[in-house]
Amino acid sequence: DDKREGFPAAFILSNKQDSKALSVAFAAIKEHVSISPKVMMTDNTESFLNAWRTVFGVPEKRLLCTWHVDRSWRKSIVKLIKKPENQIQAYEVVRSLLMETEEEAFYIMLQEALKNFNETDEFRAFKNYFEHVYCKRTEAWAYCHRKWLGINTNMHIESMHQTIKYVYLQGKKVKKLDRALFYLMKFVRDRVFDRLICLEKGKISSKIAQLRKRHKVGQELTSLCIRKNEEEWSVASTKSNEIYIVKKNVACSEGCTLMCKECKQCLNNFICTCIDNAVQWNMGKHIHYICSRNLNEINSAVPGDEELSVHSPTVDKEEMVIFEDRKFLEKAVLVDKSNSTSLVREAYFFFFGPEDYFVVKYIIGKVCSYTNN
Q: Which domain of life is it from (predicted)?
């Protein structure tokens, strides 16, 4: 909806989950709702996609849910690779492939990963699985193919399933159809009332909370280097050689609820090449940084670099080109670098998840810099 929160469009009750049964359900939906979505996200099975094609035609973009892809990789790694240290290494490689946002660098890394997997007997079985199942449809799971689509996982649906199962059904299996319908209608009723309360009293949605949090972080990015032209800014990270490009996008419609009051800009006004904006579709810290530092100039003429130097040091053209080339080369050999990382950090990455890994990595970096190690 307008607050970027999901709401169920239809429920399908069936004793089968194949293409034929789903086609009947989709046909019933089509009679009441005329939709033509640009993006369709499913789990790893093909039954939903085949049924959708039969009724609605081929969508412009088909995506796999990142959460389901990651879970499938973890299960296959544990099944096909015996040694824990090799499991960690394989997971780190495929996860780095998943999160790569530059298409050219992604395919270089992919070929290097397959080559390295094939050279070791321990990884060969996983290499065959990965190549057969996922390499033929990289457009469906790689981040470089889903930038600015506004969707990354179907966790809204997963969350709804958990709510119905444990809150309304109290973890019990319902065998009677009438009771299942009763609880589904109760769930929809509660969601409708929540929506009415939200419209009357207001609500801080998860997207607004994330937007405000990133604005605070963006205020602290005073050491980042910026070079800008008429409608484009280059933001160089201080922690790595990453360079993020922030560009003006489209003008937002009046009454937009996803607005940063301090920056006086909304989520759709700018795009950034960082994962937070390009994949997660949040108004990232780099956008907040640009807006807050150039609040008076965003909708007017762009000043020269000398006016920008008050807030942060500028980076000249030659230095920026060096950064960009160096960035590409580093990504091209990222698979080789993964072999030399600490086993402790890899263990955190595999067993606690990628988000926790980066938190631990950040803490380790701070400790090492403090102790000069």
A: Eukaryota
